[in-house]
Sequence to fold (335 residues):
Amino acid sequence: MRSVSDDVKNKDFAPVYLIYGEEAYLRENYKRTLIKALVNPGDNLNYNVFRGADTDMETVLSLAVTLPFMAEKRVILVQDSELFNKTSDELADYIENPSEDTVLIFEEEKVNANNRSFKVAKGAGYCVKAERYDSKKLPSWVAADFKRYGKKVSGSAVDLLIERAGTDMTALDMEVTKLVSYVGDREGVFDDDVMKMVHRSPSASVFQMIEAVVDRRLDRAVGLYYDMLSGEESPFGIRSLIERHFRILLIVKDMADQKADNTEISAAAGISEKIVWKYEKQAKKYSRVKIKNVLSECTRTERAIKQGRIADKTAVELLLFGIADTGGGNSGRNK
Fold:
């Protein structure tokens, strides 16, 4: 896999870059690093940007073989084009024999591994994958993010930050910036700073809400629901988070029963390794059948909202009561 930082350091750029993967923060970082290194500020003659699935590939390729004007390289950025999910011999042919006077940069969230253009790009060493950091690497990345600002942070503060803000790198970077501003000239960042400045992520709030439902504390569950609404979360968004939560519970339950370790569960479920035990504990209170019933109810709620049969705020509140009726209990631990 290609390294953008090495290419910039050595000033040895590939004629094509395919930046892809689910981690938006890293995709943006890689793209921004390349553009900064390759494009002179204000050069609108040799820098072109195309966005969206309606991008005309013929126009892009025609421009790619056009010599730059009084510059070493022409730079073309193509974002979210879905070209690596479509059949295109023309694109694959170009990647096999690209212009040395152009740097053609693609930024895509998803690609088809069986797509010929992707295979050619991968075989030529033009791919840069932006994949999420696993639970072991993420704390080091957060600590390094603080270090960029000249700040030292305790390991416990890093763990607390990830627990409260979640594992999304964009969100974590924003929280680091906020904490750096908060501590001012002070060199260290500590647990108390995180507690004061970092609010729990919506996913963490949903966890607490479901925990309250499991414990039959519906007044607390509904209270947490309205707290999330007051924090500008939409009812439909909360419904999606509830559905995601129970999909995670199902993954955790299945993998725990297969004796998978926390690292494997963390990677599969997309949660921090340090909180896998919390999900395991909650998953034990639901059978697989009951979890699947909740997921079906989430789908029905989504359909009812979209069809306008019930107000979204009321629909999600009723969903919480429905989850409570679905219940947990020891009898479902191994079913």
Summary: The radius of gyration is 24 Å. Strands lie at 16-20, 47-51, 74-79, 102-108, 127-129, 152-153, 188-189. Confidence is low (pLDDT under 50) at residues 329-335.
